[in-house]
Write a structure and sequence with these properties.
The protein is α/β, with parallel strands linked by helices and about 1050 residues long. It has 26 helices and 48 strands. Helix content is about 25%, strand content about 25%. The strands form 11 sheets. Strands 1-2-6-9-10-11-12-13 form an 8-stranded parallel barrel, surrounded by 5 helices. Belongs to the glycosyl hydrolase 13 family. GlgE subfamily. One of its GO terms (molecular function) is hexosyltransferase activity. This is Alpha-1,4-glucan:maltose-1-phosphate maltosyltransferase.
Amino acid sequence: MATQSPLRLYHARGGAREREPAAALGPRLYERLRQRGFNAVLLPAPWLLDEEGGTQAPRDADRALLDGAEVPITEWYRRVSAELADHGLALYVDVVLDRCAHDAVAATVGPDWYLPPAGDPARDPRQPAQARRLRYLRDGPLPPGFLAAWTERLERWASHGVTGLAFHAPQRLAGADWARLAAQLRRHHAGLQLLAWAPGLTPAMLAGLREAEFDGLFSSLPWWNFKAEWLADEDARLRALAPVIAAPPHPADTPPPARGRRAIWSAALCADGLMLDDRDERELADVEAVNQWFADARLQGPLRVAGGRDGRCTVLLRGTAEGATAALALNPSTDAQALLDWDALAPMLPPADIVPLSPPVGAAAPDSAPAAMLPPGDCALFLLEPTLPVREPSRRHRSRADGSGNPRIAVERVSPAVDDGAFAIKCIPHERIAVHADIYMDGHEQLAAELRWRAADETRWRATPLARGPNDRWEAVFRPRRVGAHEFVISAWLDAWQTFRHDLELKHRAGLDLRLEVQEGMQLLREALARAGSAADADAVREAIEQLGAQPLAADPVAVLLDEGLARAMRALDDRPFETVSPTPYPLWVDRCQAGFSSWYELFPRSQSPHPGRHGTFDDVIARLPDVRAMGFDVLYMPPIHPIGQRNRKGRNNSLRAEPGDVGSPYAIGAPQGGHDAIEPQLGSLEDFLRLVAAAREQDMELALDFAIQCSPDHPWLAQHPDWFSWRPDGTLRYAENPPKKYEDIVNVSFYGAPPRRARRLALWRALRDVVLFWVRHGVRIFRVDNPHTKPLPFWQWMIADVHAQYPDVIFLSEAFTRPKMMYRLAKIGFTQSYTYFTWRNEKTELAAYLEEVSSPPAADFFRPHFFVNTPDINPYFLQTSGRPGFLIRAALAALGSGLWGVYSGFELCEGAALPGKEEYLDSEKYELRQRDWHAPGNIRAEIARLNQIRRSNPALQSHRGLTLADSGNDRVLAFYKSTPGHGNVVLAAISLDPFQPQAARVEAPLWLFGQPDAGALAAEDLLAETQESWQGKIRAVTLTPDQPYRVWRLSLHG
């Protein structure tokens, strides 16, 4: 909101006509509102109404009743606004201008501005009774004089103390008309707030208001049922136009007492401006606490909603101005407890410590209570306070050791581990890391074991007990919260006290004489007490010794020795005989959540000009950001933005000769204006680029830059550092080659010196690293790396580690279309994500095999697949011939198959024209400008936007893990489901691979995930049709057509 402090609005629905004393206007009410934390009051316009009432449409918009007498309405505003100001409250007024009373005065009804009133409702029972008392604004362009008259009227109101206006039915005026009204009003009243009621407006209606420049839009939160995810979708649509004003939910099936604190707190989490009406202010608890917290929290950014099904909490997430994240967990049920499922939430959480806040009373954070439960109808508020990234001087190279000596206790088959710990496994903050190991020892003694883990810059280990499972397989779970390098070890030892207790209990059950065992127990206790010193656990041991030594015995000695409290004390005082610890820590790298979940859109900035033939600029890219964001993309990736060389410049369609005016390939980096740390002058300046970075951030997007280690023959490095390049025996420059192809507009650097030493060219390595650091320091945290498989692996391992030592949040995407082992090796040595073979997988068997490979260990532990549907270099044969249905198929496969997917611009327009016989685009944008109509007929923008909405709403789709193939009974239909750990979110997809013919399938639903038999039932939400279905039995008949080649359902037991 434009006000200095967030808007806390009291909605006096009855206004000056309110008959309930507690809500009546006046100093007593105003003082109570001030004390309870409100800073503004919203009233219905006090204008004169028709005598029958029942509507807020004006009979005379310029007159009001004051002390029983008619006065100019401005006089009413002057008095009331002054009274409110005395109590620190601003005056906001509800405005209805799309209708008036049937008998409205001339100044209000205007010269034929409104239609005549409807006929007698008795003649048409479909008409409401009040219809004949109203006249509605004529459709089409506004009548002459209408806007000017209302502008003049509202300016008078603002001059007499009205601070804000809340307009009803904003869709009745065009966005351009609202913009003209706003411009006129703000000319003399810059601080005037213009709000609009948006509940019930369709996406098309909201799109028509894009120009309106409202200061706030009221949301549909009052109709929310505490779990439906349409709330996040609406929030995104509203927030694209203006800040969001929210009021507490009033579900029709929930009586006021059952709404509880969750209603008012959910409004606070959703809002940029908070509104409570007179009923809320009287009935809801925590009003003062909510207003105070809301004023201090200064929430910002989009709303995210997750959970709410099958006995799980709904969780609302929003950022704060200080960089933290507020999370509200609420129980949607009024008659049963709900589980707070942290595992399902992990992909949505930033790196942070989770701090319970009060009020409301917070449930336990995940480390202290993984299965936190909320009472019926209750809520819990958490603040996710950002953690500092892990800092380490450099990535340590780890090699597995053989262990010291011959340990008595065996610790084997530790997982997860990449190449037995040679490389780091990868995860995101809060992700559940389940560590397993085989742990065993000779004999029958009992063992204890613990998992120890820490960040690389920490000296203290955190410890979590390992639990023994079948066949000596032990398990423990931890959840790192910081971005950067971590490590873990496993420690195991002989548990002498537990061995004693185990044997004692068996002998006791057998009825044996236990006097000697009691003496053995006393000996163990005395030894522990001697080790204890002043430890707190010594008290329990000392008490047990006293009880066993008392004469006569006051307690059963067996009961004393088997006591659980004593067992806990002895565990803490254990001297851990034969302890075995992993000889070398197992590495773990924690990336921010965007490393596993993001949606990329690639564009050439030089093609973004709206004017054909004009070279695009960064400002043109800024203008396109809302359009790209509207499709749901959160990463904008640009090929190289650096100066392009002139020597040997390529022409259109990769021709060897450039004509005058040809722009060349952006991968031919370097010109007299500079190299990899410079910007192509036609795009703009560094200052312009920084404005683009900031504009992207305002759209909740990030920029990704291309890091291409190649130079044009004009690159300044050739003159400055000729020894960094390769030269032929005749003294000529060695150009880049991929025989038989030669790229004479590009030369490659040489990472090593001449034989026989072949020493590293360390100055070159540092210069390339410094290029990355230059852009990092200018706001870029994501790099797509061109052809890394053609550069030395030691260089990448060193460079990525060195960058991560300073900026652990940097993401590197590997564009290595090469052999599988090389792709995996690049991931092991540090690349965050990788392009994949998905682009060429079209048949069911090969798609199924590949999806299974990359979604399961061992690959899934270190390799994050990024499913790009096309690239400027790759125009897949499938898309060249399959038309619009083919583009829909590939979009669904990519968006639903991995947490990472991307498109190269033009995909949404179904562009597939190719050079004959090649997987290359005709008139490739790599060599020329390409302006487009981004809303051309036949586009799939809406379908892409819906897929991205579905991805944002379902944590199961925000990772490459958790995928299981499902039987479809048709080799042209691929079916699979994705699930979070614990199955808190399960999504089933069926995708036709045939762009030409309808395909019928019998999809097998995973009833067993929910503990259901084959004949059981599931609730299925059709995420495309946005409808609810009840499924009986495990087989679901589905027909997929070229126009609708995929279906997506969210499955649960109860919906």
